[in-house]
C-alpha cells in the first residue's frame, strides 16, 4: 500500500509509520492497553514546577504527572491523558496524582519555614466523578495537608459540561478551603461572564500568549487584558511558560502576580526541588 511504498523512500521508517493514521490508531490502542497496568507497575511519577513571585521567590509548585512505560518508553501527559480520559483510567491516575503530590509536598512543608502552595491539575472526568469531593476530603486528611495550601487547576473545557453541577462541585471545593485556578486561560470555551459567576481564585495566562508576547501585539494585548480583568476581579494572575527575561520583564511591567516557566525552573523531582529551595535537610 501507499504507506509501505512511501516508507521505503524515507530513512526513518519508524517516524513515518507513527505518522500514518493506521499506525497512530495501533499505537493509541497499545497505549490504552499499557495504561491499564501503569499504576500497578508503578510507572507513573510526579514532578513539581516552581511558581515564583516578581521578586523570584518561590511561592508554590505545580504537580505534573509523568509516565515511563515498559514497552512504549516515556509518554508525555498531553499524549496519554486524553486517551486515559476516554478509557476511564484517568480517574485512578488522578487519584494517584492527588495522593502522591499531597504526601510529597506535606513532607516538604514539614521542614520548611514558608510552606509551598501545591497546584494539582484535575481532569474533566476526575472532576465530574461523583466521589471527587469525598476522595479529596479524605486525601487532605490522610496527608495532613492544610487545605488552603492546595489549588486545583481546571480548564475551560470543563464548562462544556453541565454548568450547574460544576458550580456546585466548585462550591464544595471552596467549602473545604481549597483554592481554584482556571488553567490555560484565554484559549478555551468559556465566556468572560463565567468568571464573575464561578468561585475562582486564580487565572493562568496560557503559554501561547506568553510565547508571543514580544513579537505579536495581539498576544501582548491578551496578556494585558487578562491581567487587568484578574486585578479587577481580585484574582491572582499567573503566567505559564515564561522562558526568557524579555517575556518576564514585559509581564512584570504589566503587573502579573506569579510566574512559572523554564526561565526559573523545569518541572523538578522532590530532591531537585529541595535543592532549588536551598533548604535540603542534611542529617
Ligand atoms: P498545564 O497544566 O498547562 O502545564 C504546563 C505545561 O507546560 C507542562 O507540560 C509544563 O512542563 C510545561 N511548561 C512549563 N513551563 C514551560 C516553559 O517555559 N516552556 C515550555 N515549552 N513548556 C513549559 P506537561 O508537564 O507536559 O503537561 C502538559 C499538560 O498535561 C498540562 O498542561 C496539563 O494540562 C496536563 N497534565 C500534566 N500533568 C497532569 C496531571 O497530573 N493531571 C492532569 N489532569 N493533567 C495533567
Ligand atoms: Mg496546569
Ligand atoms: Mg496551564
Ligand atoms: Mg498549558
Summarize the structure.
By secondary structure, this protein is an alpha/beta fold. It contains 13 helices and nine strands.
Essential attributes:
eight-stranded mixed β-barrel, 19% strand, 49% helix, 13 helices, EAL domain-containing protein, disordered N terminus, 283 residues, binds magnesium ion, binds ligand C2E
Give the biggest sheet.
8 strands, mixed, barrel
Describe the strand arrangement of the main beta sheet, using strand numbers.
1-2-4-5-6-7-8-9
Strand composition percent: 15-25%
Pairing-aware structural class of the strands and helices?
alpha/beta
Distance between the termini: 64 Å
Determine Rg (CA atoms, Å): 20 Å
- The geometry reads as globular
The count of strands amounts to 9
Q: Indicate the mean pLDDT.
A: 91
Percent helix, as a range, is 40-55%
Unreliably modeled segments: 1-13
DSSP summary: helix tally: 13
- Unique bound compounds: ligand C2E, magnesium ion
User: What is the H/E string?
Assistant: HHHEEEHHEHHEHEHEHHEHEH
Oligomer state equals: single chain
What is the element layout, followed by pairings?
Blueprint: H1 2-7, H2 13-19, H3 21-38, E1 44-53, E2 58-69, E3 73-75, H4 77-87, H5 90-110, E4 117-121, H6 124-128, H7 132-143, E5 150-155, H8 163-176, E6 179-185, H9 192-197, E7 202-205, H10 207-211, H11 217-232, E8 236-239, H12 245-254, E9 258-259, H13 270-277
Parallel strand pairs: 2-4, 4-5, 5-6, 6-7, 7-8, 8-9
Antiparallel strand pairs: 1-2, 1-9, 2-3
Bound molecules: ligand C2E and magnesium ion (MG) (3 copies).
The site of one magnesium ion has 4 residues, from loops.
